[in-house]
Amino acid sequence: MTDNASAPRSRRALLAAAAGGAAALAASAALPLTAMAADGEPVLQGHTDNNATATTSINNATPNSDAFTAAAAGTGFGLKGSSTGGAGIVGWSISAPVGLDPVDTAYTGIFGFSPAAPVGQIGVGVVGVSDDWGVYGDGFVGVYGYGSNGVVGESNTSSGAGVTAYGLGPNDLALDVVGKVRFNRSGRTSVASGQSTKTIKLAGVTSSSRVFAVLHSNRSGRYVRAVVPTGGSFKIYLNATVSSSTYVAWFVLN
């Protein structure tokens, strides 16, 4: 008898709509600019291009009021920025008071929000797309995620990783976990009475995989003698047959 481990479901479809919107923004940023207007002219509503050779600045001195707002109907962009070498949009805020909730929008450089999207789509508060780093965070906490899944990472190549953690020095932590950990390439199986082996089918297992197993039932004189991986499966060997059904826990590293 063999156990079949279910394959993980991909989250790639969840980002399709957001990535499409980002691609449209990148394409529009590459369009040529029209003739430049003279400095000092007013910014005209509905005018296709309001170009200048100096910075256009809007300052609002009224406390707790917005300096500039923009809204678009349908799938249009509320605010769009592009650059030929710098940053398309830059936002910053003064330092937050001690003890302020890290997701409080009162002290946030750039805040992105999206409501729940229709069925089959997904709303995304902030999208970062690049041939290098899509999103970069620098600070005491570089990137903070909060929610049912605080941070989700997915790799689209067999040589990459959904999430990569580095410890720069020999004593620096690469990964610090507080709480339970769940691995879909681990599980528990049972060796039937009168048997001493069990084969587990698991996609991605090769002869070089590191597989560990240990008894999860108290059986005097019985132990896991070996675990031998092959293509797509591994076999657990006990040192002798068991007189009753015996649980074995297993874990695959690679």
Summarize the structure.
This protein has one helix at 16-29, and strands at 2-4, 186-191, 197-201, 211-215, 224-230, 233-238, 246-252. By secondary structure, the chain is mainly β.
The strands making up the biggest β-sheet line up spatially as 1-3-6-5
State the distance separating the first and last CA atoms.
24 Å
Helix content: under 10%
Shape estimate? elongated
- The H/E string reads EHEEEEEE
Structure class: mainly beta
**Poorly predicted ranges:** 4-37
Q: What's the number of structural domains?
A: 2
What number is the mean pLDDT? 82
Please, how many helices? 1
Largest sheet: 4 strands, mixed
Q: What share of residues are in beta strands? A: 15-25%
Outline the secondary-structure elements:
Layout: E1 2-4, H1 16-29, E2 186-191, E3 197-201, E4 211-215, E5 224-230, E6 233-238, E7 246-252
Parallel strand pairs: 1-3
Antiparallel strand pairs: 2-7, 3-6, 4-7, 5-6
Describe this structure as you would to a colleague.
- The chain is 6% helix and 15% strand.
- It is elongated.
- A hairpin with a 2-residue loop joins β5 and β6.
- It is mostly beta strands.
- It has one helix and seven strands, in the order βαββββββ.
- The longest helix has 14 residues.
- About 13% of the residues have low confidence.
